């Protein structure tokens, strides 16, 4: 029951339609709030019920103090939920299992149903197995369907069994681009008790790059799958009112720079500023010079600089993009009228209050790449060769994870390279190879073996995509070709991209350079890069070559892109094409020749680089609204493969006991109507001792499944040959595979097992604690009834919003994590799975306390409490009986998180809530 205690309900008339709205100007202080907080304020006003959303929450937001480090708790109710299939399949599996559980407890299975619009886009399953040939897309699509038919049957069943749940079938596009081009409403409307209600479009997504839609003025961010499930079931999200950092944009892009250069510069700047857990908002006179596609690029990469979101306010550019993408004129007029009426329209002369302001002159941008293993490590293109040589010469430095070669928050300059203490006599190791077509060539350290135009970050942006097509055209006309050892691929974010390539006549030139369409999906950016050219792969392994990948993506963490590329660099699509032409990171693209043209003369990048005017002319002529309206006219129908899938009837899914993709999960095993009491953690052993910046990519299973890994052995034991292993992401619906792949990243360094790399630990159930796989040790600890603990450094769990990083941790038997600091989503997900996140007091860590990891840990102060305390005593006792005692902070930050922990996780909590409300 909405209480409307501030009297904000009113009516807005647009054309001949009346909409109920909740006026922000009735709150006297609303004018001073940043755009994003105005959206949150409206959300509270509209959902005030006196129980979950209270007058006190609204007043707290109205009284927001910009510099306050701790804000009040509020309950945010997103308008909708967006999922991709890697993270969405576990959501559907959990909802199906929840239906089974509610039936077992005597409840109604129809209580388990999304209550808000929930849309899933299948975009993470295509792998670039086939490339560089005309049938690559068809071949990869067939392989995708063969591998994933069991998962797709579950999703197809969910599409017809659940209300408010829609699935965009495979081969359509990347969820963030589909969201931007089609799913987003900007201003949402729904039928209320007294007529239509209009309000800002908001969402949470099961992919950390959900903020891409912030470029459209839509507030949304990435959450773990378990948080998304609660939102789908109508549970408001508990959050603290955030600080908001204002990034003022001035000036204009210099010639030769792109949106990618801007976003890499912003990632570097804001990592240095420190925006983890904060909102970022763009404002100022330079906003008008940022096309919508570039705004989306900036929003997309907000996880790379650590912010919750990175939003642009609504303005004329928003309306232009809506018109371009085929939205109706009434929708566009509604957005304009609503935004202006509610004070949500961008006014460059009115600066809201911000917690902190940062300024960036667009004129200071330079061509940039980022790497070799973090997106915030920006490198100016003109010093990239020297940087790579320094990296190659200092491989041992990189391996020690000290990252002394690349300063954390500073672009590398040529004059700084020789201050790194690195011998620049980098190891030449030229290896002769003969390719399958008889071509003889050489491969060396620093060569580029992957060049991929992929990922929503850039493939949604016609400015850089058309730019790449024009650059390819001129390269071909000059007589250049890709180097034969480079695997090239093109994986756009929607079919609109290939439509405008065709209309512009650019497809043939990209094909000529090997950038044939391989699929519509994330591919290389999430590790679905497929195998390298076989002869190249063999040479890399046999000679231990340090080779590189270059991609137009947003992530390049260790082990993510491809297991054989130790260095991976983020670059614009245009530079991806250029690196494919030279085939090495040793070429200075701004000074050196790219190759010899058909006229015998050297060709330089400046000779083939298109101007902004040339790019815009092609966009104006070839990117039209009918492409979007036609392309999305029947977006949920799918092809014949999708429509012909055999699916069970009924409100409960029929689990296939023989499936290695989808299995009934154990989260509700033994769950009763009432939660059990919280207990202390006694006699725990350490599963892993980890350093700083351990990402969810290090924790969560991702990428290829090795045949000799615990997961590979499981699949082999179930009759699956290696060709059928697929990827961890595609098997997220099978907890048996995922448990075995948790903490199994090939670049994980567990300090408890020094000298190892990968998913190894020591098993203290055995005499002397021998080295073991993390999974095998976990099995032994669980059999022995021994709880487990993890020690970690700073920024634990940064990276993608992977719920399996928390699910796998919990299923391995981990009861608590003790870290120096956490990334927001992973900390929340740990609580959602019943794992206790603890944090060292300032100035303390495992090293300062002298913890080796061989101790037995006791965590007290939990038992007997209805809710967990704010801090707990920890005692670590070594083999000689010496005890190290310290106090750790309990990082359960809100009352709702405390409820989740008390119930053993968010899933049992939601089940009991639904049972109680019947």
TrEMBL record:
Aconitase A/isopropylmalate dehydratase small subunit swivel domain: residues covered: 713-842
Domain of life assignment: Bacteria
Cofactor: [4Fe-4S] cluster
InterPro entries: AcnA_IRP_Swivel, Acnase/IPM_dHydase_lsu_aba_1/3, Acoase/IPM_deHydtase_lsu_aba, Aconitase/3IPM_dehydase_swvl, Aconitase/IRP2, Aconitase_4Fe-4S_BS, Aconitase_4Fe-4S_dom, AconitaseA/IPMdHydase_ssu_swvl
Keywords: 4Fe-4S, Iron, Iron-sulfur, Lyase, Metal-binding
SUPFAM superfamilies reported for this sequence: Aconitase iron-sulfur domain (SSF53732), LeuD/IlvD-like (SSF52016)
Gene Ontology molecular function, alphabetical: aconitate hydratase activity
Catalysed reactions, as listed in the record: citrate = D-threo-isocitrate
Top EC group: lyase
EC code(s) of this entry: 4.2.1.3
Role of this protein: Catalyzes the isomerization of citrate to isocitrate via cis-aconitate.
Family that this chain belongs to: Belongs to the aconitase/IPM isomerase family.
Name of protein: Aconitate hydratase
Organism field: Alkalimarinus alittae
Classification lineage: Bacteria, Pseudomonadati, Pseudomonadota, Gammaproteobacteria, Alteromonadales
């Amino acid at each position: 029951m909405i209480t409307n205690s501030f009297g904000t309900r009113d009516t807005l008339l647009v054309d001949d339609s009346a909409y109920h709205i909740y006026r922000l100007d009735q709150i006297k202080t609303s004018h001073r709030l940043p755009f994003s907080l105005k959206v949150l304020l409206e959300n509270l006003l509209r959902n005030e019920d006196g129980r979950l959303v209270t007058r006190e929450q609204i007043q707290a937001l109205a009284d927001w103090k910009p510099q306050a480090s701790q804000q009040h708790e509020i309950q945010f109710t997103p308008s909708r939920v967006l999922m991709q299939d890697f993270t969405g399949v576990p959501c559907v599996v959990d909802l199906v299992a929840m239906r089974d559980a509610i039936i077992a407890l005597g409840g109604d299975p129809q209580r388990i149903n999304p209550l808000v619009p929930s849309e899933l886009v299948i975009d993470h399953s295509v792998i670039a197995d086939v490339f560089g040939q005309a049938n690559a897309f068809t071949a990869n699509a067939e392989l995708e369907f063969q591998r994933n038919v069991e998962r797709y049957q579950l999703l197809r069943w969910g599409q017809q069994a659940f209300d408010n749940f829609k699935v965009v079938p495979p081969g359509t596009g990347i969820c963030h681009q589909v969201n931007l081009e089609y799913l987003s409403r900007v201003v949402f409307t729904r039928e209320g008790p007294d007529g239509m209600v209009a309000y800002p479009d908001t969402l949470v997504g099961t992919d950390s790059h959900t903020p891409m839609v912030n470029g459209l003025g839509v507030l949304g961010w990435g959450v773990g799958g378990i948080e998304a499930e609660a939102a789908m079931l109508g549970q408001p999200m508990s959050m603290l009112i955030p600080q908001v950092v204002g990034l003022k944009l001035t000036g204009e892009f210099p010639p030769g720079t792109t949106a990618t250069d801007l976003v890499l510069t912003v990632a570097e700047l804001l990592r240095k500023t420190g925006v983890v857990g904060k909102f970022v908002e763009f404002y100022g006179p330079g906003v008008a010079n940022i096309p919508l596609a570039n705004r989306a690029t900036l929003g997309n990469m907000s996880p790379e600089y650590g912010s919750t979101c990175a939003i642009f306010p609504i303005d004329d550019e928003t309306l232009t993009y809506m018109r371009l993408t085929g939205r109706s004129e009434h929708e566009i007029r509604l957005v304009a009228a609503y935004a202006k009426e509610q004070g949500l329209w961008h006014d460059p002369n009115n600066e809201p209050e911000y917690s902190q302001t940062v300024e960036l002159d667009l004129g200071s941008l330079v061509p940039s790449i980022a790497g070799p293993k973090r997106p915030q490590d920006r490198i100016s293109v003109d010093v990239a060769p020297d940087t790579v040589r320094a990296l190659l010469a200092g491989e041992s430095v990189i391996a020690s994870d000290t990252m002394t070669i690349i300063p954390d928050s500073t672009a590398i300059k040529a004059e700084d390279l020789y201050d790194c203490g690195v011998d620049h006599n980098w190891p030449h190791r030229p290896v002769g190879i003969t390719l399958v077509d008889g071509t003889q060539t050489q491969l060396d350290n620093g060569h580029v073996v992957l060049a991929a135009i992929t990922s929503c970050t850039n493939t949604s942006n016609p400015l850089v995509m058309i730019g790449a097509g024009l650059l390819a055209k001129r390269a071909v006309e000059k007589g250049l070709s890709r180097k034969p050892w480079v695997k090239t691929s093109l994986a756009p974010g929607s079919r609109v991209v290939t439509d405008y390539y065709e209309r512009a006549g650019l497809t043939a030139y990209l094909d000529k350079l090997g950038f044939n369409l391989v699929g519509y999906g994330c591919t290389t950016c999430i590790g679905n890069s497929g195998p390298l050219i076989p002869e190249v792969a063999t040479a890399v392994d046999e000679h231990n070559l340090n080779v590189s990948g270059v991609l137009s993506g947003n992530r390049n963490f260790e082990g993510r892109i491809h297991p054989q590329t130790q260095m991976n660099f983020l670059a614009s699509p245009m530079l991806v094409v250029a690196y494919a032409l030279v085939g090495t990171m040793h070429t200075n693209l701004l000074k050196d020749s790219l190759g010899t043209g058909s006229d015998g003369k050297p060709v330089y990048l400046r000779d083939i680089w298109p101007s902004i005017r040339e790019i815009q002319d092609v966009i104006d002529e070839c990117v039209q609204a009918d492409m979007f309206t036609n392309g999305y006219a029947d977006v949920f129908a799918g092809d014949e493969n999708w429509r012909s899938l055999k699916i069970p009837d009924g409100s409960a899914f029929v689990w296939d006991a023989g499936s290695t993709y989808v299995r009934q999960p154990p989260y509700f095993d033994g769950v009763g109507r009432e939660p059990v009491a919280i207990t202390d953690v006694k006699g725990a052993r350490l599963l892993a001792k980890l350093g700083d910046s351990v990402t969810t990519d290090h924790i969560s299973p991702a990428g290829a499944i090795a045949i000799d890994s615990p997961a590979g052995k499981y699949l082999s034991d179930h009759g699956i040959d290696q060709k059928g292993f697929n990827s961890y992401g595609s098997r997220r619906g099978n907890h048996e595979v995922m448990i075995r792949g948790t903490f199994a990243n090939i670049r994980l360094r567990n300090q408890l097992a020094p000298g190892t790399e990968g998913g190894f630990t020591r098993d203290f159930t055995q005499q002397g604690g021998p080295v073991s796989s993390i999974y095998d040790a976990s099995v032994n600890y669980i059999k022995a009834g021994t709880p487990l603990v993890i020690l970690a450094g700073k920024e634990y769990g940064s990276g993608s919003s992977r719920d399996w990083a928390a699910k796998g941790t919990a299923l391995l038997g981990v009861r608590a994590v003790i870290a120096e600091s956490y990334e927001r989503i992973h900390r929340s997900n740990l609580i959602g799975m019943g794992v206790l996140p603890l944090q060292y007091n300032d100035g303390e860590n495992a090293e300062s306390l002298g913890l080796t990891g061989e101790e037995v840990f006791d965590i007290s102060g939990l038992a007997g409490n209805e809710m967990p305390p704010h801090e707990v005593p920890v005692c670590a006792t070594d083999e000689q009986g010496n005890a190290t005692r310290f106090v750790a902070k309990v990082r359960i930050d809100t009352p709702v998180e405390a409820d989740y922990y008390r119930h053993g996780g968010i899933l049992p909590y939601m089940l009991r809530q639904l049972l109680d409300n019947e």
